[in-house]
Design brief:
Chain A has about 650 residues and is an alpha+beta fold. Chain A is about 65% helix and about 10% strand. In chain A, α7 packs across α8 and α19 packs antiparallel against α20. Chain A is globular. Chain B is built from 3 helices and 7 strands, in the order αβαββββββα. In chain B, β6 and β7 form a beta hairpin. Chain B is elongated, with a radius of gyration of 22 Å. Classes of the chains: A alpha+beta (about 650), B alpha+beta (about 150). Chains A and B meet through α13, β1, α14, β2 and β7 of A and α1, β1 and α3 of B.
């Protein structure tokens, strides 16, 4: 019964999304404020119905109602409750419903917090959001309905893929979708601007909190996915340049560029056309990601099922939105009054360079991701473009980007002082050289590329802090003055520092992991010892342990450092009983910023068990750095000037002005 | 600086960044892409030892031999089969008669030395390259792998 109600709610939500598309846009065309004002209640109602449908699906999963096909295919009565719930989106149908839920959530947020937007802009945005929702809800209802029943009802479900039975599934997809779909708002802003034929700095100011929100979630979503792959797949890798990972990286790159170009537009009334284009491109790349993942064009852990009809349908959606918006852009962009040009050596000049590099990196990743598909379609030859390609292309471009990054905030708007910047960066360079040399000495040398990477990451962190110290007059003025200045700084200034330092931390982690990891592949019998880095490990044997729906063979390792027992690591081979599917549950222990990573392999003929043991120094900075970046984003978002819907109506602002 | 000069600087920088990216992409495409082949294609084309390849097919029934930390097995597409050696831990879902993709190089004796072995992520699905390879040899059973059973 609940499945039918939820299905019905989904149909109603589709009807509402069509209303949300048609009525406000019609209102804009006729300049009818009543029609335009329909958008908000309709968006809120649509959100309510999609939420109901989603809740209905959760209930079906929790109750293990195997008469519902998607529950049968992806759940099992013995599965722990958490994985019954997360199993809702651990499959194609449910994950598309989650996509729709996130989309309608953002529509509702615009309806709630968009009160300060001009009525026409708001109606346009909600109308465009309605169009996206209508198409995706139709897609779900027509090809990916999660509420279909099967008859006769099976006794038992087929279980969620064991790899997905992890807390990661509860966190990674929702965060990633909040990022992906969050950019639909900036897309809607861009299309609305093109329809109206008008953008101004206020537009950039309105768009920034939304772009920032999406960016924060996307950053966390990517980092979480990376950490999940790292601990779950048992290879110790955190990024595989898998096409699906690239699909999430591309919108992140374009979205990061968008955040920066919107600043230029807000402050200097320039880069308007470019910012609008970036907003379109960012969401287009999100859609492309959805297409690559959901169409079955690629095979990966993210692909749930291949159904050609779905692929064609999503391709159609892609063509409709990307083609449509770019066509609109081609016709309407010339109408937008373009802003002035400015001096190359200036804050805005540096931001342009940032945009050039970010888009060049995004284009490179896009090329590497689509090239195999294109080649196979044209010549039939199958190739794989993997890590070597991306390391050789994205690596140098990213290094260039990071080298100029600390210079940006040091430059003044309009006309920067290059010699002053060079002096301050010379200081950062000197510190980075000394620090990198010190680390190299600590590590008894290392690969030259890694040493260079180390230098760049420290340079980025120090350079960013130098700029911050500069603003506070730290060490130049009395300490009280610095504190007073820190209090006076907008939160977004702290946000920038954290986000920039965060990327430096990420690079530091990547470089340390790549350059100074140690690996042992050994076959061990109980009581045998192995040493790695500064640790001595004793394998004490394997014990069996039963869980709710699995059985573990747990290998225990006593870890000693200088003869002192510092940890006992358990690593296991887990067998999920419903489908007899094995997984590797790596044993990971953190020491400082580094991690000891043990994953068990198969038993060897002699009665020993094979194990991969890694020591990965400073590896946790890869994810901690990403969290620092996201915290920086959140701080900026909490800035009074940027809070969602922040721009005060013109009347009040002018009333305040004389008092200043 | 005049407006014209500013525009030239902007366009020049954009071109410089783009051509840097293009140069990196082209050089990397030349050296670091890896071709995928089935055992049949590999037998037909003379591939010289040392070139990186991806091969795929089914793990031949009864061919898997483990010796300490290394493993030997044969990959077949139903027509030809290819001996493979691998050092290290095989993926969880590596089984005989299941799809597998391996990356590595051929040695002079015609044995494929894999440094990466990929199996399926899930009981239900098969690597697409393998499915295509099997279809090509006519040994694909409908309802297997890529589609839901």
């Amino acid at each position: 019964m609940i499945a039918e109600l939820a299905h019905y709610a989904l149909i109603l939500a589709f009807a509402l999304s069509v209303a949300q598309l048609v009525l406000p846009l019609w209102g804009v065309a006729k300049n009818d404020s009543l029609l335009m004002s329909v958008a908000e209640p309709v968006a809120l109602a649509g959100f309510g119905f999609v939420t109901f449908a989603f809740a209905g699906l959760i209930v079906a999963f929790v109750q293990s109602d195997f008469s519902v096909a998607s529950v049968f295919a992806n759940s099992h009565s013995a599965q722990p409750l958490l994985y019954k719930i997360t199993g809702v989106w651990g499959n194609h149908e449910g994950s598309m419903l989650l996509w729709a839920l996130v989309l309608s959530t953002f529509s509702a947020l615009v309806a709630i917090f968009g009160g300060t937007l001009p009525a026409r802009l708001r109606a346009n945005i909600l109308g465009i959001e309605g169009a996206i929702a209508a198409v995706f809800l139709f897609f779900i209802l027509a090809t990916s309905n999660p509420f279909l029943r099967i008859d006769p009802v099976p006794f038992e479900g087929r279980e969620l893929n064991p790899i997905l039975q992890d807390i990661g599934l509860a966190i990674h997809p929702p965060l990633l979708y909040l990022g992906y779909v969050g950019f639909s708002i900036t897309f809607a802003f861009a299309v609305a601007a093109l329809v109206e034929g008008r953008v101004d700095p206020a537009w950039a100011r309105w768009v920034r909190p939304w772009a920032l929100t999406a960016w924060i979630f996307l950053t966390l979503g990517i980092a979480m996915g990376s950490y999940w792959a790292y601990y779950e797949l048992g290879w110790g890798g955190y990024w595989f340049w898998d096409p699906v990972e690239n699909a999430s990286l591309m919108p992140w790159l374009a979205g990061t560029a968008l955040l920066h170009s919107a600043v230029v537009m807000e402050k200097r009334d320039a880069l308007k056309v470019w910012t609008v284009l970036l907003a379109i491109v960012t969401f287009s790349l999100s859609l492309l990601g959805t297409f690559l993942v959901r169409s079955g064009v690629l095979t990966s852990v993210h692909t749930f099922a291949n159904d050609p009809a779905r692929g064609i349908f999503i391709l159609g959606i892609l063509v409709l939105f990307i083609g449509g918006s770019l066509t609109l852009f081609a016709f309407r962009a010339p109408v937008l009054k373009s802003g002035g040009l400015f001096a190359p050596i200036s804050r805005e000049g540096a931001l342009i360079l940032n945009n050039l590099f970010l888009t060049a990196i995004a284009a490179t990743v896009l090329t590497g991701t689509l090239y195999p598909l294109a080649l196979e379609a044209i010549t039939g030859e199958k190739i794989s473009v993997g890590a070597p390609f991306f390391n050789r292309t994205v690596g140098p471009l990213f290094i260039c980007l990071l080298l100029i990054m600390p210079a940006g905030p040091l430059l003044a708007w309009k006309r920067g002082d290059i010699t002053g910047v060079a002096e301050r960066l010379a200081f950062a360079t000197a510190i980075a050289l000394v620090a990198a040399g010190y680390f190299l000495w600590l590590a008894n040398g290392g690969p030259i590329l890694a040493a260079f990477g180390l230098f760049v990451s420290i340079y980025v962190i120090v350079g960013t802090l130098v700029e911050f110290a500069e603003r506070l007059l730290l060490f130049r003025a009395p300490f009280e003055t610095s504190v007073a200045r820190a209090k006076g700084l907008p939160r977004s200034a702290f946000g920038t520092v954290l986000a920039h330092a965060g990327i430096g931390l990420v690079l530091f982690g990547i470089v340390a992991e790549a350059g100074w990891s140690e690996e042992r592949i050994v076959a061990l019998k109980a009581g045998e010892r192995v040493s790695i880095a500064s640790f001595d490990l004793t394998f004490t044997g394997v014990v069996q342990r039963d869980g709710e729906n699995w059985r573990d063979q747990v290998g225990r390792f006593e870890v000693r450092r200088g003869g002192v027992l510092v940890a006992v690591v358990e690593s296991s081979k887990r067998l999920y009983l419903a489908n007899n599917q094995p997984t590797t549950e790596a044993g990971i222990t953190t020491f400082g910023l580094g991690q000891l990573y043990i994953s068990l392999g198969d038993s060897t003929p002699g009665g020993a068990i094979s194990a991969r043991i890694y020591w990965k120094p400073i590896v946790t900075l890869i994810w901690l750095g990403a969290i620092v970046m996201a915290v920086g984003g959140a701080l900026s978002l909490s800035d009074r000037r940027l809070r969602i819907g922040a721009p005060r109506p013109a009347g009040r602002r002018s009333a305040v002005a004389p008092a200043e | 600086m005049t407006r014209r000069q500013r525009r030239l600087v902007l366009i020049g920088t954009a071109l410089a960044v783009l051509s840097l990216a293009a140069a990196l992409v082209l050089s990397a495409l030349r050296d670091s892409i890896v071709f995928f082949m089935t055992p049949t294609e590999l037998a037909a084309k003379q591939v010289s030892p040392g070139i990186r390849l991806r091969i795929g097919g089914l793990v031949k029934d009864g061919s898997l031999v483990r010796e300490g930390l290394s493993a030997r097995f044969e990959v077949t597409d139903g027509n030809k089969s290819l001996p493979v050696t691998y050092q290290g831990a095989l993926p969880d879902l590596f089984r005989e008669q299941q799809g597998v993709v391996a990356e590595g190089t051929l040695d002079k004796a015609g044995i494929f030395r894999a440094d990466t072995v990929l199996a399926k992520h899930d009981e239900r699905y098969m690597p697409r390259e393998v499915a295509d390879a099997l279809k090509k040899q006519g040994v694909w059973r409908e309802g297997e792998g890529a589609k839901r059973k």
